[in-house]
Design a protein that fits this description.
Helix content: 40-55%
CATH superfamily of the largest domain: Type I PLP-dependent aspartate aminotransferase-like (Major domain)
Structural class: alpha/beta
Strand order of the largest sheet: 4-10-9-8-7-5-6
Number of domains: 2
CATH class of the largest domain: Alpha Beta
Shape: globular
Bound molecules: pyridoxal-5'-phosphate
Number of strands: 15
Largest sheet: 7 strands, mixed
Distance between the termini: 30 Å
Strand content: 5-15%
Amino acid sequence: MDHRPALAATDPELAALITREEARQFYTAKLIPSENYASSAVLQATGTVLTNKYSEGYARKRYYEGQQVIDEIEELAIARAKSLFGADHANVQPYSGSPANLAVYCGLIAKGAENQRLLGLGLPAGGHLTHGWKVSITSRFFTAEQYGVDPKTHLMDFGAIAQKAREFKPAVIVCGATAYPRVIEFAKFAEIAQEVGALLVADMAHIAGLVAGGAHPSPVPYADAVTTTTHKTLRGPRGGMILCRSQHAAAIDKAVFPGLQGGPHNHTTAGIAVALHEAATPAFSAYAHQIVANSRALAEALLHEGLTLVTGGTDNHLILFDATGLSATGKQAAKAMDAAGLEANFNSIPFDPRSPFDPSGVRIGTPSLTSRGLTEAHMAHVGRWIAGAIRGREEPATLRRIAGEVQDLMAQFPPPGFEAPYPPRPAISME
Ligand SMILES: *Cc1c(COP(=O)(O)O)cnc(C)c1O
């Protein structure tokens, strides 16, 4: 019954590991907001002979022959990206979100320019490493400074951001986040960028699927360049993408190749093309809106359990809660949830008094459960399970009971990308 006979025959050891991971993914409730399940169509496009081809350069201007088909694939992906997001230009070659960001900064900030300053949201406030955080290479190549969120509301404070931009005078302002549960007001960032003469980069990695489906405002009309991953809410293969205004197209393309990368991953480009095709459907728009509805319902359920949520709730796909309200650290809470079949990650909350290695918060989200077809009514269960696992973190029987209930529900909602026969249910072990 092995559905990968060649792999099983050639490398049974590796095949067995993949089979185990399939069962794990199938029977756990994935609450990590940056993850999703690529469809069977996306997986099939990705696992093809396109991986065999070198195509350095861009369509019709390659450094290798034999690009008759590859050019058409890349052009199809680009046309779909431009059409879905209403962008002037698209580059689908970045290997992932982080290299896409570095390429955009390199493209927009001229070599030897006097002003090489980058202003982004700080990591503790929900920004990404690549927005100029101190351990990221982006803070070595550029002089980086960070804005934060309001100490009381934990919302973006545009007065303070504008003040910082006036003082720092960045060449580029980056907006976008990895742990911010509210709508990002791109128009306000554009106003600030215009006032201080900076270019605006919007990183929509987390929310690209919401933007595609109309469940979050689009940054495209406001930003000089927009970067994204393709594997989060957009539900494609692991990859990156850049959208930009025509006047920046040549510089950004050059920064991606030959600036930072070699040959594009053509099998990934094909998977991205499929994902963009799927994201342009009414079903995907319904999906994007359901992600937000589920996220709101889950926030309600957690508030009902007495948990404190950063900003008090959510407008998007993710929720950041303070586990210390249940006398647990973020790490203890995330480990207890994992033992109960609820996959999440510990995360700093704004102005966290604890260290980033064991912070106060846990970050969760609904893109994956929504891909499986769960709706608001299920979120009440999920909220109870989360709180139950954290409260019962010293009680193996409680964690085992919840893990069993999670498996029961997951068995009824197979994720995209999994086809019958489904993996057998793994035993719940408690080491
Ligand atoms: C995930 C993420 C990235 C980086 O993506 P990788 O594919 O992990 O390199 C960049 N920016 C934001 C806001 C993200 O959430």
